Amino acid sequence: MKITIETPTNKAGDKKSIRLVYWYGSYKDAEGKIKHNRKREQLDQYLYVNPKTKSEKQHNKETLQLVEQIKAKRIAETASGQHGFADANKKNTSFYAFFNKVMESKKTNLSNKNYDLWQAVLIHLKRYHPDESLTFEHVTVDWLDGVRHYFDSQAKTKTGNLISSGTASSYFNKVRAVINEAYAKEIITKNPLKQVAGIKPITSPRVYLDIDEVRALVKTDCRYDILKEAFLFSCLTGLRWSDINKLDWSEISVFNGVNRITFNQKKTTGLQYLDIPPQAYSLIKGFDRTGRVFQSLRYSAYMNVELLRWAMAAGITKHVTFHAGRHTFAVSLITQGVDIYTVSKLMGHTEIKTTQLYADIIDNVRKSAMHKIPDIGL
């Protein structure tokens, strides 16, 4: 933080008041203009605009010396965190300006996905607290509890639906990150997050198919051949809908005699190498082998309904979505004894704990199986 001296002239034009200006950062507004965060401390001193007498000149000289001493003292007090005004000055830092500063640091040349997430959080925060003058002085335990409650039970998507618990957790974690950053930079001296719990996402049951159900789908006709091919391709490779939908022939090559996909995941943007099993490769077609692999695949309500109808026709009563193909791939590998680390890499997960959820499914299946042993009359 920087401290400067201001000497505005009074209306009469004969004297100048004196104040210290505390500068503590800047930010860009919506139009890209730089705005400064600052606070003023009015000193009980004045200067003559045009000193004429010897006493007036002496007054100005002594006053300027005194003001410089006060300024030096404030700088020392600010550095040691002792001066009450400096602490108040920090607390008066604009929350949204600081949030913007942290958000801008999340921009990368590789992807804007994380940055877009931060922007979504900011939009919701301003719906909850539209007053742009929000400072860290207002960021209390009660305020954070209110933000937490808003994300957890009130925030809605563009379509008017409540956001998922996972999204609420992710959004609130961004707010927590800003608070922790402010605490680390000593803008706030106490961290209110110690008294505010995070939002724990609710893990919904993951629908997957066993091998017999997948075989039943293979034998059952589907109204859209492209949907059948794409879904079975997901079951055999673990690819998400978004990655299958954008899969291009330019991403497929032969490496050591094996067909391989080299692509950037749409969700995480991470570069991934994935060998294509022969069964999966037999599902992809294309005479000129250019452009999208699954060219006529489109996301629509018709496709979703047909996926359910196709599953029911195969005797499957589960609520099958396209993502069930990815779950099927993971559970199938773990069931076959593939270690969780390898499965995590094949799935393109950034954290092993995400893959651990599939291992938990297998544990539950094993526990259930043990209770199916027939009564032997003991």
Task: Characterize the structure shown.
The protein is of the alpha+beta class. It folds into three domains: 2-91, no CATH class; 95-195, DNA polymerase, domain 1 (Orthogonal Bundle); 211-370, hpI Integrase, Chain A (Orthogonal Bundle). It is 47% helix and 13% strand. It has 14 helices and six strands. Strands 1-2-3 form a three-stranded antiparallel sheet. Strand 2 (15-28) and strand 3 (34-48) form a beta hairpin. Helix 4 (113-128) crosses helix 6 (165-184), helix 12 (324-335) crosses helix 14 and helix 13 crosses helix 14 (352-370). The protein is elongated. It starts with a strand and ends in an 8-residue tail after the last helix. The model is unreliable at 82-86 (pLDDT under 50).
